[in-house]
Write a structure and sequence with these properties.
Length: about 150
């Protein structure tokens, strides 16, 4: 496993032609340390969540293959784990663990860019997806993951 520095940017995108009043599409960005390992065509990245993500105390791991990304979160305030799978054009259902209990979740990935190297010390990818938390909210998100330093 290599030590890395990650820059993670998340943004909510309006699902309407004209966003409603008060809609905030300001990206949330944080930089954190993590670990990276590769096995064949699979890349695994793990990192601790930031208070900016609202998931303090959680550990996130990403398993990246050429056609699919699996995000797994575990933490002290969660009874179990949350798993989100991103595969272009396919719906994946799972349970989103919150401090208030589990919520049924569905994810549909619209675009996934390959995890591509950019120079010797960087790699990046982007996932655009819709997420529905049953009965609570629906939104469209863009998640950019950038390895900005590989030691």
């Amino acid at each position: 496993m290599k030590d890395i520095v990650l820059k993670i940017t998340g943004k909510t995108v309006s699902m309407l032609p004209k966003p409603p009043e008060g809609f905030d599409d300001t990206p949330v960005e944080f930089i954190t340390e993590g670990k990276l390992s590769t096995r064949g065509s699979t890349t695994i990245i793990s990192y601790d969540e930031s208070p900016l993500s609202g998931m303090t105390g959680c550990k996130t791991s990403l398993t990246i293959t050429p056609k699919k990304v699996k995000m797994r979160r575990t933490g002290e305030d969660m009874d179990g784990e949350t798993v989100m799978e991103f595969e272009k054009g396919k719906r994946h259902e799972s349970v989103y663990e919150t401090p208030y209990g589990p919520v049924s979740m569905e994810v549909l990935a619209h675009e996934i860019s390959a995890f591509e190297p950019v120079g010797d010390r960087e790699s990046r990818m982007s996932i655009e997806y819709a997420v529905s938390l049953r009965g609570l909210m629906e939104s469209r998100k863009i998640l950019d993951i950038e390895v900005v330093d590989k030691n």
